[in-house]
Amino acid sequence: RSAFMTRSELKKAKRVVIKLGSAVVTRADGQGLALGRLAAIIEQVAEIQNSGADCIMITSGAVAFGKQKLSQELLMSMSMRETLSSVDRTSELKNIAQHELKRPNAAVGQSGLMALYEAMFRNYGIHVGQVLVTKQDFINNDTREQLFNTIRELMALNIIPIINTNDAVSPPPQETVMEGTLNITDNDSLASRVAVDINADLAILMSDVDGIYDRPPKDDGAQLLHYFNPKNTNKIKFGDKSDFGTGGMESKVVSAGFALDHGCSVIICNGMKYNTIRNIMAGQNIGTMFSPLEVEGTNVKVLAKNARSGSRKLSSLTPEDRADIIRHLAKSLLSNEKEIMEANVKDLNAAKARGVSGPMFDRLALSRSKLESLCTGLLQIADSSH
Q1: What is the bridge-based pairing of β-strands 224-225 and 212-213?
Q2: Which residues contact 149 (CB under 8 A, 6 or more apart)?
Q3: 106, 112, 229, 328: which has the fewest Cβ within 10 Å?
Q4: How do residues 134-170 score in pLDDT, each as one tens digit?
Q5: How many CB atoms lie within 10 A of CB 143?
Q6: Which residues, 6 or more positions from 130, have their beta carbon under 8 angstroms from its beta carbon?
Q7: Tell me, what's the pLDDT at 74?
Q8: Of residues 138 and 100, which shows the higher confidence score?
Q9: C-alpha dihedral over 62, 65, 69, 74, to 10 degrees?
Q10: What's the CA dihedral at 2, 283, 353, 343 to 10 degrees?
Q11: How many CB atoms lie within 10 A of CB 369?
C-alpha cells in the first residue's frame, strides 16, 4: 500500500481519520467549546461518511468542556459551601486548583462532549461511538488488538468512532520511545497510530496553523509548504507549540512522517478556517500535504510574485537596456541546455507519478528544437523593443 502522491488523488480516499486539535474545538478564551466551528466541521465529516467512506475522529475538548462546567462549581465550593459545611476542604480545593483541574475537568467534560457530538451527527442520520484510550492500550498487544477490533466493528456498522485520550486517568506523556513504532505523546501521534493500524488512506490533522512553513510563521519571509517530504525535515525550522495543545509542529511532522511511511497520506491544516475539509477533498491547496514526491525549488506563488516584480523593473528600463537583457536570456537557454534538460527529466518523472499523460505530458517535454524556437522568439522581441 502506497500513499497518494498528489492532492488530485485525495478524493479517492475511502477511509479518513480527522484529528481536531484543542485550539480547533476550544474557544479563544479557553472556557468551553467553539460550537459554531465544531458544527461546520461535523457537517463536512458527515458529507464524507454519507458518501460511502469511513470516517474516524480523534478529538480534544473534554477538558475545555469540563473546565467551563466546573469553574463556577469551584468558586462556589471555595466560598459558600465552606460556610455551610462542617468539613474544611480549603487545602484540598487549593491543591486541586494548583493542578489546573485537568483530570476532574476531563471526567466531567467527557459525557457532555459526546452528547454534543451525538446530537450534531444525528442531524445527518449518523451514529457515533465513544472510544476512550490510554497509552497503555497501545503498549499491551492484547488490549491493542481488542481496541482496533472494536473500531473496525463500529465502522462496519456505519458508526463513526470518536476517539480521545482518557485524560481522567492518563498520566502525563512520557518521552520513552518504543522501537519500530510511534510513541504516543499527543493527539497527533494518536491519530497517526490509529490511521496506520486501521489502514486509513488519509489523515487530516487540524490545528491552529495553516501548515508546515520553512521557518516559524511569525518570521519574515516564512513560506507555507503545500507539499512536504519528511526527508527534508532538517531543512526547516520549527516554532513554538499552540497555547492549547500538548504537541507542537515538530511533533506533527514526526507523526505525519510515521503515517506516510506506512502508506497513509497526511494533511496538516488550519481547522479554524471555513470549509477546510471540503476543500481538501476537492484537491485544493489547503495546508501541507505529506508526500513522497521530491518537490524542489521555489513554490509557484513566489515565482509568480518574482515574475511580476521583474516585469515591472524590465518595463522601467530604456529600450536598449531591455533589449540587452532579453538577448542575454535568449542565449542562456542554449548555453545552459544541459542543466535545463536535466531539470526537465525530473519534471517529466514527477508528472508521470501524478498521472499526467497525452498532449499535456507532451507539452512539458523539452528538446533542442524547442529551446532554439524559444531563443529565436526572445531575440525577435529584443529586436522589436527598440
Answers
A1: antiparallel
A2: none
A3: 328
A4: 888 888 889 999 999 999 999 999 999 999 887 767 6
A5: 14
A6: 110, 114, 162, 164
A7: 65
A8: 138
A9: 60
A10: -130
A11: 8
Highest-pLDDT range among 86-90, 104-108, 119-123, 138-142 = 119-123
CA 230/CA 234 separation, integer angstroms: 9
Phi, psi of 56 (to 5 degrees): -130, 130
Cell of 137: 492500550
Give burial (CB, 10 Å; 0-12/13-18/19+) of 319.
exposed
Q: What's the grid cell of residue 383?
A: 529586436
Measuring CA to CA, how many Å separate 215 from each of 238, 249, 289? 6, 11, 17
Query: How far is the C-alpha of 110 from the C-alpha of 170, rounded, in Å?
Result: 14
- Residue 98: the pLDDT is 43
The answer, yes or no, to whether residue 355 has pLDDT greater than 90, is no
Task: State the burial class of residue 231 (Cβ atoms within 10 Å of its Cβ: 0-12, 13-18, 19+).
Answer: exposed
- Put simply, whether the predicted model's pTM sits higher than 0.85 gets the answer no
CA–CA dist 106, 108 (Å, integer)? 5
Q: What angle do CA 354, 273, 33 make, to 5 degrees?
A: 130
Bridge partners (DSSP) listed for residue 203: 17, 266
| Portion of the chain with pLDDT greater than 90, in percent | 42
Banded pLDDT at 359 (limits 50, 70, 90): confident
Distance CA 148, CA 69 (A): 32
- State how far the alpha carbon of 360 is from the alpha carbons of 11, 256, 375, 385, in Å: 22, 32, 22, 32
Q: 43-94: per-residue pLDDT in tens?
A: 999 999 999 999 999 998 777 777 766 666 666 665 555 555 556 665 665 5
